[in-house]
Amino acid sequence: MLGILIILLLALIGGFLVSISPATTAQQNKFEDILSALPQTQCGKCNYSGCRPYAEAIVHGEADINQCPPGGAETIKVLAKLSGRQIKPLNPENGLQKATQIALIDESLCIGCVKCINACPVDAILGTAKQMHSVLVKECTGCELCIAPCPMDCISMQAVTA
Fold first, then answer.
1. E strand or H helix at 102
2. Structure pTM?
């Protein structure tokens, strides 16, 4: 019994030491820096489900730094610096950089199907079933994920002006 307790204690101490090792801390810091450099649109245009998985893939060398259309050239420059990679142009397979935009719902056409609400990754659309929906402008990231599921084609994107 004492032997099992000693082995368990050593395993816990070893796990703690690994978790605070400089390599792990440095990698975590690099991840946090890369994540904060991304625009947080959660649009999936990078072929990842959001900015966090994309940042993890960059840190682990599984994704290139030029896959974020909302971030565009400026974000690519920052990601290159943070990851130690070469600056390269945005990969057109992921989309083109556009001006910042937000979703707008034509409330006269909205039937309250909630499909846009379910599609929004940042909960920027308010409404309930069979009632008109509205976009929380300050929360909308312009990801465009609400457009395709709308059966009434009542959602459009509008460029954000200063």
1. strand 101-105
2. 0.78
Q: How far is CA 94 from CA 25, 28, 50, 64, in A?
A: 31, 26, 13, 11
Query: For residue 1, what pLDDT band results from cuts at 50, 70 and 90?
Result: confident
Distance set, CA 56 to CA 25, 53, 67, 76 (Å): 14, 5, 13, 16
Burial of 133 (0-12, 13-18, 19+ CB in 10 A): buried
How far is residue 54's CA from residue 65's CA, in Å, rounded to a whole number?
9
Domain ranges of the chain: 22-94, 99-162
CA separation (Å) from 64 to 27, 30, 98, 147? 17, 15, 20, 27
Task: Summarize pLDDT for 48-68 with one digit per residue, the tens.
Answer: 999 999 999 999 999 999 999
Q: Show Cβ contacts of residue 119 under 8 Å, excluding neighbours closer than 6 positions.
A: 145, 146, 148, 149
Q: Which CATH number among 3.30.70.20, 3.40.50.720, 3.20.20.70, 3.50.50.60 corresponds to the domain 99-162? A: 3.30.70.20
